[in-house]
User: Fold this.
Amino acid sequence: MGLGFVLICLGGTLVAGALLKSQPTIRGGGLDFPCARGDWTGQQYTHLCYSDIVPLYGTEHLQGGRVPFIDRCPSGSGQCDEYPVLTMLAMYIAAAPVRHVSATPTSAYGGFFLSNVILLVCAAGVAAIGLYMVAGRRALWFALAPTLLIYGFMNWDLIAVAFATAATVAFLARRDVASGILLGLGAAAKLYPALLVIPFAAERFHRREPDRAIHLCWAAVGAWAAVNLPFALAGPHGWSEFFRFNTQRLSDFDSLWYVGCDTFTSHAPCLSASAVNVLSAATFVLAACAVWFAKVRRDPEFPRWTFGLPLVALFLLTNKVYSPQYGLWLLPWFALAMPSLGRLSPFKLFVLFEATDIAVFVTRFTWFATLPPYNTGGAPKWSFELAVVLRAAVLVACLVAYLRQRTPEPGAREAPELERTEAA
Assistant:
């Protein structure tokens, strides 16, 4: 099995994902894509074709050529500029050709979706190629993942996934500055690539290469600052909206904080934004430290870079927001570092996660269809919350597997970094 086969499989998954989100139909003697152009009357939930990409073309006011952060949002227009810099720039770039070729507002929404599909397909290709380089056939876990099919075109997370995966490839090739730059750029698109600086730097310190660790960290900080600083100076209010928005945001439907509140108090969310901010951050730090020290005690020589798997999983388990597409963050790490748990092979654990992730997807959006103003038939709320809990249980099982595994399995074939020994 070669790279070409992986890319063919990836193409099939992405085509299926684009069809799911666009819902092609024959209308008026021609082919129409009602879901992609925002012709929504509830079918975005009942047909499972909802995507953030479609409404954000309008809510971010990209149709008029507004430059994110620099140009203020129109007064009274609601939320705007709530994404990190590189994600907002991706939206702006994808909107540029649409403004010149779309004749009607509805066709503009469809054109914007198509433009982003092209961009995100490229990002997925980068991630798949990178995984194949270091994990061989396990790259198929990414290329054929149902999570990729249902969430690949939900939001712009594949951009951060591409940067994070490329950074991992660079790190394993001992290109630490390049790895740091890619992590910094990834963090400028989504927060999670910044977390990977920790295990990557820890690996260098463990190998008694502190200079390499320092270079990686400074490269990550420098790349993030180089992208963010111009916007922070030119449009400080717009640039800081991302931080204000996420600080004030309450616990989201898919988080254990929301499910816990709804289960035990029948009132969700039951915690203020400030309270859940403190509790989720403290829980994440304490849990990460506990897993780290337990792993070191059980297997002192484990490759520190593989700690990226439990770190991302713990972030998702403890964070107040687990947006549907965040499962994409885990896919490369399942391919790179998923261990076994007793009779549960790495692949079986992966399949369990995929099954629960699909269950969350289906129950979440069909439950939304039961709410006003649609009030149609769909999954009850309890089934959605049960799916969230089951998915969390699978992630906990993955953490247990990681702790119990004395010889981590970074992929189908050993990564180059693990084969090197320190020169005398």
